[in-house]
Automatic annotation (TrEMBL):
The gene is cutC. HAMAP family: CutC. This is PF03932 family protein CutC. Belongs to the CutC family. InterPro entries: CutC-like, CutC-like_dom_sf. It holds the Pfam family CutC.
Length: 228
């Protein structure tokens, strides 16, 4: 079982690693769903921890529909993140009619090299997630999908997430479940969905607030529940 934790600072990253996180998603603007962090932060976090660091590539929070200049910006960010030694990137793009934007996805993947690629929660805006999953299966560079099974929190979409896990079984894609999970329910959630990776942000912070630091006690309780 892999526990991915959101980090927004170097201190977050070190606290996460020291208290049971297996992987980091590094972002800024947590209250906007995560945007690309500055390259200085990326470099310092990679130096500070030994666990894999996956970096958000999202130029703005207006939508997941990107212009040519947005895509050029994202490519430049991917190049810088790769040069910094990150283990992966987190990205996604949609067409104006709400499908996976394969043209943009292909343009971005051309620059990811051997980094792992997570398709982020743009996936949760798709009308047909199973069609979306089949689309992503055409791209070996995409290694996982971060999803709550739709627009609602993950605990409210257990049947959908279980179906996505079953659909992805045997492929190169893993389902990374996130949004609305807490350590109190995580074992039941894992048992009911069959996920092998989970993603936590606000729920492991003081007061369960995205704008507070990671709470080592909360995170350790979660990690112990997951890794038992």
């Amino acid at each position: 079982m892999i526990l991915e934790v959101i980090a927004t600072t170097v201190d977050d990253a070190m606290t996460a690693e020291n208290n049971g996180a297996d992987r980091l998603e590094l972002i800024t603007a947590i209250t906007e769903g995560g945007l690309t962090p500055g390259i200085g932060l990326v470099q310092q976090v990679i130096k500070a921890v030994n666990i894999p660091v996956h970096v958000m590539v999202r130029p703005h929070s207006r939508s997941f529909v990107y212009s040519e200049t947005d895509v050029a910006t994202m490519i430049a960010e991917i190049q810088a993140i790769r040069s910094a030694g990150a283990a992966g990137v987190v990205l996604g793009a949609l067409t104006p009619d709400g499908k996976i934007d394969e043209e943009t996805l292909g343009a971005l993947l051309a620059w990811t090299g051997d980094m792992q690629v997570t398709y982020h929660r743009a996936f949760d805006e798709l009308d047909d997630q199973f069609e979306g999953l089949r689309t992503l299966m055409k791209y070996p560079a995409v290694t996982r999908v971060l999803t709550s099974g739709g627009p609602q929190p993950a605990p409210q979409a257990i049947p959908q997430i279980r179906r996505l896990v079953e659909e992805a079984r045997g492929s190169h894609l893993k389902i990374l479940a996130g949004n609305g999970l807490t350590w109190e329910i995580i074992r039941d959630f894992i048992d009911q969905t069959g996920v092998t990776e989970v993603h936590f942000g606000s729920a492991v912070r003081y007061g369960r607030s995205g704008l507070k630091p990671i709470d080592p006690v909360e995170l350790r309780s979660l990690a112990d529940s997951i890794h038992q």
